[in-house]
Amino acid sequence: MKYRETLRIVDPTLRDGGLVNDFHFTDDFVRALYRANLAAGVDYMEVGYRASKKMFNPADFGPWKFSDDEKILATIGEPAPAIKLSVMADAGRCDFETDIRPRSESPVTLVRVATYLHQMSIALEMIEDAKSKGYEVSCNIMAISAVQEADLRNALDALAKSPVDTVYIVDSFGALYPDDTRRLMDIYLDTVGAAGKGIGMHAHNNQQLAFANTILAAEAGADWLDATYDGMGRGAGNCPMEHLVGFIHNPKYKLRPVIDFAGLEMESLRAAGTVWGPSLAYLLTGQFNQHPRAAIAYTKAGRSDIDNFLNEVSNTN
175, 207 in Cβ contact below 8 A? Predict the structure, then answer.
């Protein structure tokens, strides 16, 4: 892929990876991750969700489920100029009016609004709110493989008229094949791209295609690419940072800090019993274009009856 100055890498290890361990990362891990991202040249580090404490009990989660500004500053401090911090706010699961303060009062630069198509009206309200407070804003459209093209185009047309900066393809189910990614990129380029918005890719690895889909999106014109260390993320995980940085021939990004962190800190998480990554169960939910919740339950239960699981997911498709 040719060098592009507009390319941005976003690391959602704390946020998507937090779905694996209920966000129970140590402060030392978070600081080490921040230093690795800074040394590697990663552009944005997502420090978690900004979830509603009215909907989610803080006693049930680690602090990065909520990523309060005070916790960010106490753990990381003011970010260096070379890297920016982001949080994700789920439509309908965030008290954005009060919990997202003006940008001048926060170490966060980017607010990523995550939404399903049926929540687009509240997502647009959240985008307007965050922009009015001075943030960069993206809209991450989830479960993209399960939507109808006409509905998607209507949503993208609305986003094209909004103040959002970037709109993401989010392969929540890990169901996309490269041809699907190419088709979606054409739709995004024709709508939000034509309106001057950035386009991003967030891929899940159920079919071990997260890296392939990410680089295809990049080659087609996506400038915002998500990747996590050792692919850590919900279920089958995400595009691995070490794959992406190793592929992008851009002098800004350095592979060694990524390998060092993945080889030490991520292996330590695995050794301590944290589980993520591709498996037959995740492969099947991806192939049948289903939310991975059934595969997550299968994995947590320690099941090995994959034939029965195949019957279960094929019967519900």
Answer: yes
Residue written as tokens 């966000």?
23
For 35-53, write each residue's pLDDT tens digit.
Answer: 999 999 999 999 999 999 9
Examine the pLDDT at 2 and tell me if it is beyond 90: no
DSSP code at position 308:
H
Q: Indicate the residue type of 238.
A: N
Tell me what the mean pLDDT of segment 227-236 comes to.
97
Inter-residue contact 245 to 262 (CB < 8 Å) = no
∠ CA 154-316-177, rounded to 5°: 55
Where residue 235 falls (left for φ over 0; alpha for ψ -120 to 50; beta otherwise) is left
Half-sphere exposure of 43 (CA within 13 A, CB side): 15
Domains of the chain: 8-271 (3.20.20.70), 280-316 (no CATH)
